[in-house]
């Protein structure tokens, strides 16, 4: 919901200030699904508001639930017809994490990523990001659960949409609203240095995750074009500034790609790179969803790589993989939708 436009309409209608508070509560705390459920409003006012300000701007196109029921992926259509996706991951404990998109498509062109093949279309507004989270909040409400963390790891590079992403963080953090602690939100970047430095000066304690995938420039530049602008040394210098200023742990995402970044030399390079900062780093090894261009590292080699990192002193774990059966890797559903559209127009 666009709260700026809403405030304007309420003001024009000379509504008392508590009306806005009632709507905010219904939206962010009670997770009501539409204007019809707002029974504290007179019906006439409700109908008028519904006409002027849509409660939701995202339309659900498709939802996929994994056979285990631990992953729910949703393809949304935006008001301009563009498609984005978000994923709910239900951990074995109580944690319920929403992975949301910050852009339609992405300009970063990482070669292992389905979204990277789409190119960049546009930034999402903060309202569109917040609505992805609210959609899952309503979904979980049915079982008495709630969203416990949010990660900006879906489609897009969050630091290329910095202001709207931070507005989303502040909105979700608002203690009188959704009230999600900043420590329960993580921003994942492919390594956009100015964004890392900017985040270091933010008052909110949001987590930072870096999609590293290789500590070796030649390898990283091949799979992540961003490395040509911000090579590994430059990236680490920014990460160290961030750690010095915030004293917060930084998470490094490392997708294991067969014979590309999973060799002995890759483990050693990673240990050298992170070595001075082991206290404040953690490496998440990720199994590759084989969808695009590369082969993932086999299970036994993934275990061996992790063991080697531990021998070298690197704090690392395997990240639990969600939703392999339902195209849950970033951008897969949206790319499939585009392919379907293409097929329809070709035949
Ligand atoms: S991995 Fe992230 S930054 Fe890279 S292309 Fe995909 S969405 Fe963009």
How would you summarize what this structure contains?
This protein has about 350 residues and is α/β, with parallel strands linked by helices.
Topology:
Elements: H1 3-12, H2 18-29, H3 43-52, E1 59-65, E2 71-77, E3 83-90, E4 96-99, E5 103-105, E6 120-123, H4 126-141, E7 149-152, H5 162-173, E8 185-189, H6 193-200, E9 207-211, H7 217-223, H8 226-229, H9 232-246, E10 250-256, H10 264-274, E11 281-287, H11 299-311, E12 316-318, H12 332-346
Parallel strand pairs: 4-7, 7-8, 8-9, 9-10, 10-11, 11-12
Antiparallel strand pairs: 1-2, 2-3, 3-4, 5-6
Helix pairs in contact: 4-5, 6-9
Bound molecules: iron/sulfur cluster (SF4).
Q: Which structural class matches the secondary elements? A: alpha/beta
CATH topology of the largest domain: TIM Barrel
Q: Mind summarizing the main beta sheet?
A: 10 strands, mixed
Please work out how many helical segments DSSP would assign.
Answer: 12
Which regions have little confidence, pLDDT < 50, spanning 5+ residues?
A: 342-347
The strand order across the widest sheet is: 1-2-3-4-7-8-9-10-11-12
The small-molecule ligands in this entry are: iron/sulfur cluster
Record field, number of beta strands: 12
| Proportion of residues in β-strands | 15-25%
Q: Using only CA atoms, what is the Rg?
A: 21 Å
The CATH superfamily of the largest domain turns out to be Aldolase class I
Domain module tally = 2
Q: Helix coverage percent of residues?
A: 25-40%
Shape: elongated
